[in-house]
Amino acid sequence: MKTILILLLLQISVFTFGQTTKIAENLYSYTKPIQSADQHCTPEIKFDPLIHENIAGPYDGGNLQFIWPFTQAIDDGIVLVNYVDNRSGTGIKDYNDDNWAYDGHNGTDFSLHDFRNMDRFYAVKAAASGTVVQTVMNNYDRNTGWTDVDPANKILIRHDDGSYAYYYHLMKRSVTVKLGEYVTQGRIIGYVGSSGVSSDAHLHFEPGHFVNGNWTKRDPWSGIYNQLPSLWDDQLPYLGFRDFVLHDMGVYTAGLVGGSFNNNMSPYLKERIISPNTISGYESKIGFWMLIQGNYSTKQIKLEMRNSNGTLIDDVSYTNYNQFQYGWQWWTPDFNPGISVTGNWYFRVLYDNVEKGRYFFNVQLLTSNRPRLYPAAGKCFRRSVFLQRDTLRVRPVRTNMQYELVGAPPNVSITNDSIVNIGTLDQIFRVREFKVIASMGGSASLRDTMIYKLIDTTKNHSIGNGIVSLELKSYLEGRYNGINMQGDSITVLLRNALSPYVIIDQATVYSLPNGSSIANFHDANSGIYNYLVVKHRSSIETWSKTAMQFPNGFPLKYDFTDANTKAYGNNLKLKGGEYCIYSGDVNQDGVVDVIDVASVDNDLSFFIQGYVVTDLDGDDFVDSADLAIVENNANNFVVRMRP
Ligand SMILES: [Zn+2]
Questions:
Q1: More exposed terminus of the chain, fewer Cβ within 10 Å: N or C?
Q2: What is the pLDDT of residue 379?
Q3: Ligand 1 midpoint to CA 108 (Å)
């Protein structure tokens, strides 16, 4: 069952939903609609003497050195979809003498993949230092169109040289700076949203200045069609007309897109369809989507579906000759293999016969989907004297949902199972994050996470530029019985990668019986390397093998239990097939020795009970089992190992 089609996208358009086009059998494409010259993602900028100042005389902005205005790098969830159109009148010319823009576009548009990424908070940084002269922050932020919308949430910063930069389309209530405040370059000023005239979550970044009361945009990118100096301290290479870029992909069933593969797909794709946990071999069709960008220039794109034995089940291919600034393509082949071949099937994406990606999905008897917080999984709340509330909603509707607060401050609680109450903010730094994990009966896989940002502009900015999260797995030797663990509090430290390994931040968290814990760090930066150090009141301090980098926008997962090489110096003990942190350092001096043995022995002789430091196995009795653990580790000269 092979379908091979070679065609010109512009010539064949047999099936459309808005901008959806059928390009081959069961294969569809959705691109950003083409904007006409009178449709802009930002309003015309008019001079307001209360806010704006003119610059007298010639100005080329050459003293500005913009930094990249995101925590994440290009292609790390961020796609450059429009440059500045430098051509006056009709027609498009970006700085590179190409047309990676729309007609009359005055800024640079950086788009997030989807609203799911928006909910994971993409921070916007001040590209240059300056004074905040305008903020708008309360408008709806999940627009997907250009008509009948509220204005954009935005920030206007006046630079030291008298020029300005606009940051448009921010998330509702996410502006983290105050009017009149001087912000230094690199400071987080808000989060990417889709407020105002906006089809996708994106930042429109527009520098410029006023001359005689007229706004003059300034294209920061320097090239053939803009010979003014670049305003970037490190201008990226030209990002239009690259070869095929596969940004993201996944699989889905009809149930995840409203029950039918024939529905308008763009709302689902823009929210990112979350792949099912398992897919039934009796689904009659299956869907595969991919988010792509680039210029195909006559090369072939091929999609394959293979079963868990690697056998090719179906494929489709096509060639197109268009630029594809940003969008999705999806394929809905017939499925229904039954359950004769279960396990990990996969889709393969090939461009010009080179594999660009592979997406695995698990085929079983029944389809199961994880719950999903709806309609958003990320929100900002600002300081208020009133109690603020938010109701958690999950789709599909489940009966056995559990909601757990993670890293929440004391003024936050959950009542009536699903209402988040946020009292008057009392926090050290301006932005604080907490999460709610919604799970089906506590399941580790059937769950979703809601992120809240609490913004209190009466407080200072944190020294870090956001929050990083660690999803840790670790077992404590004494408390682990080979199946699960007596949970206990542990302290996780982040320490600088270089001597003297300064402590950057620390969090005390509860380690669950399955060894998992989540620690949020407010003073750490993503992208920076830190050692992870686990401390427990009666265990050997244990360091990660190497310094670890927190990814941008997502938690770092670190598992100390699956290999002894995960710990510095391989300093873990194998017990019941899992690697555990050594127990027995009762006095926390970094060595398990006769002093620790003596204190356990002493408490044992007095039949000490309860939550005491010498009860190494957590059964609330100090007994011979505890003594055996500490004696064994003392005999083996167990010590802390660290760089
Ligand atoms: Zn724009």
A1: N
A2: 96
A3: 6
pLDDT digits (tens, 9 = 90+) for 222-262: 999 999 999 999 999 999 878 889 999 999 999 999 999 98
Is the confidence at residue 551, as pLDDT, over 80? no
200 compared with 31, residue with greater pLDDT: 200
User: Which stretches within 495-636 are classed as H helix?
Assistant: 594-605, 624-635
CA of 376 to the centre of ligand 1 (A): 24
- For the stretch 349-381, pLDDT in tens is 999 999 999 999 999 999 999 999 999 999 999
Cα of 325 vs centre of ligand 1, distance in Å, is 14
Task: Supply the pLDDT for residue 108.
Answer: 96
pLDDT at position 68 over 90: yes
Q: What is the mean pLDDT of residues 530-547?
A: 96
* Arch. (CATH architecture) of 36-238: Distorted Sandwich (2.70)
**Strand-pair partners of 503:** 495
Name the helix (H) or strand (E) containing 267: helix 266-271
* CA 38 – ligand 1 centroid, Å: 13
- Ligand 1 mean position to 207 CA, how many Å? 12
Q: To which H or E segment does residue 328 belong?
A: strand 323-331
Whole-number Å distance, alpha carbon 105 to ligand 1 midpoint, is: 6
Cα 195 to averaged position of ligand 1 atoms, centre (Å): 12
Rg (CA), the chain: 28
- Tens of pLDDT, residue by residue over 439-467, are 998 888 889 999 999 999 998 887 655 55
Considering the chain, tell me which residue range(s) the CATH 2.70.70.10 domain(s) occupy. Answer: 36-238
Rounded to the nearest whole angstrom, what is the distance from the C-alpha of residue 12 to the centroid of ligand 1? Answer: 30
Task: Write out pLDDT tens, residues 21-34.
Answer: 888 899 999 886 66
Fold of 2-31+242-361: Immunoglobulin-like (2.60.40)
- CA 230 to ligand 1 centroid distance, Å: 19
109 CA to middle of ligand 1, Å?
5
> Ligand 1: distance of its center to the CA of 209 in Å?
17
Mean pLDDT of 70-81: 90
- CA distance to 57, 78, 291, 331, 504, per residue, from 144 (Å): 41, 17, 17, 23, 40
In the chain, where does the domain assigned CATH 2.60.40.4130 lie? 468-635
How far away, in angstroms, is 112 Cα from ligand 1 center? 13
Q: 504 C-alpha vs ligand 1 centroid, how far in Å? A: 37
% of the chain exceeding 70 in pLDDT = 93
Distance 221 CA to ligand 1 centre (A): 15
CATH hierarchy code of domain 468-635: 2.60.40.4130
CA distances from 9 to 23, 81, 225 (A): 7, 20, 29
Instruction: Give kind and range of the element (H or E) at residue 318.
Output: strand 312-319
* Non-local CB neighbours of 582 within 8 Å, separated by 6+ positions: 477, 539, 540, 542, 571, 572, 573, 592, 633, 638
Give the Å distance between the CA of 156 and the centre of ligand 1: 15
Cα(141)–Cα(170) distance, rounded to whole angstroms?
A: 7
The third-level CATH classification (topology) of the domain covering 372-455 is Immunoglobulin-like (2.60.40)
Instruction: Give the Å distance between the CA of 19 and the centre of ligand 1.
Output: 19
